[in-house]
Each structure stands twice: as structure tokens, then as C-alpha cells.
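Translate sequence into C-alpha cells.
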Amino acid sequence: MHTVWAQHSREDKDVATSGAPIQVVVARLAAAPDAVRASAALLSDAERHRARRFAFDRDASRFIVARARLRQLLAARLGVRAEAVEFEYGAYGKPVLSRRFADSDLHFNLSHCEDVAAYAFSGGHAIGIDIEAVREISDADNIAARYFSRLENATYCSLKPRDRPLGFFNCWTRKEAVVKAFGDGLSMPLDRFDVTLAPGEPAKLLRVEGTPGDDSGWWLHSLCPAAGYVVAIAGQA
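Result follows.
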């Protein structure tokens, strides 16, 4: 088990399990134009080029603020300037610190939905995080049938209609967090593992291929950072 400290933007507070520390920071991405410009100054040329490729200014601003905040959070942990943080990317696009910071053994992951971003930090262990806004989507049943495991889909279908949106996004965020922690991207079959999803049931990894979740060497945690949002964090034990 792992301690999970959650900092909620300007209103910081903690939630915890037990064990080694995992830190989660949740922040709003809405910012005034001058704040967006200041954030852009912290980014690399590649990041600024990526921001210019967004079709809508709102999406570009959210990306800029999210990446600048990531740099600030990493810089505080590494003892460097935000502009000095350097990234490399895995085969499936997962960002990691460059080899220059290998001695820090700091792992991180990020996710954002609308104007809310979630960041996870771990010392020495792979980690993944996902955030989603809970909402009704018209093709949720078809998505669950196609992408959830057989057990997950059966559990989802057994939920009362009013519980299905939360059950759907519990499952979606937990599966996404696990895939991001593994670092395999969408090349990893989503029916390779099972997670809990019923509202009120603790987040848990039930199975990884033929191995029970408790023996898989991975853990799963969830939290509600703000009304209408769910976050899942997965990591290596």
C-alpha cells in the first residue's frame, strides 16, 4: 500500500492510505492571458511549437499552463529552474525526465480534462494517472462492451442506470492509469487486466493476465478531487 498525498490547487489538503509516499497535485488550468504568456516562457521550443498546432486558443492555453505547471512541480523536486527541466519520451509517448536527471529516480505522470489537470509523482517506481469529468455519453454501453474486460463489462451492465456514468468513468480512469503506469500505451490489450468500478467500491486491480491483482506487483488508488471529477492513480509496488 502507498500513501497518496493530494494537493488541490490553491486549497491544499491530504488524503492517505498507508505505505510509501505518492504525491498527487490537482490544479485548475484557467488563466488570464498574461499568465499564459508567462507560462509559455517556461516551455521548450518543442512545447511552444506543439501549442501552436492546437486549433483552438482555449486548448493551446490549457496545454501551455499544464506543461508549465508540470515544469514548476518537477523543478521544485529537482532543485533546478523550471526552464531547465528536460524530457524524453518512451516508445508510446510517455514523458520521462531526461538522462540528465537519472540520479533523482523521480517518476511522474500527468493528465488533464477540460480545465483541470492532475499530476502524480513517485520516487523510484513507475506511475500513471488519469482524470475525467463524470458525464453521460451516448455510446457508453458500446464502449464498455468493446474495451472493458468481460468481468468489467458484466459489472458495468449490472449497475443501476443512475450509477452507470460513475461506474463507466471509474473503470475508464483506472484502466487508463494502469496502461500509463505500464508505459505500453494503447498497444496493451485492455482485457489483459480487471479493475473494480462499482460506485462506493474501493479502487483495486483484480487481475493482470493470469495473476491475481494483489500478487501482480502493481497497485491502484482513486480519489475525487472536485465535484464531478474522478482521478485514478496506478503504480508499481
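Note: Confidence is low (pLDDT under 50) at residues 8-19.
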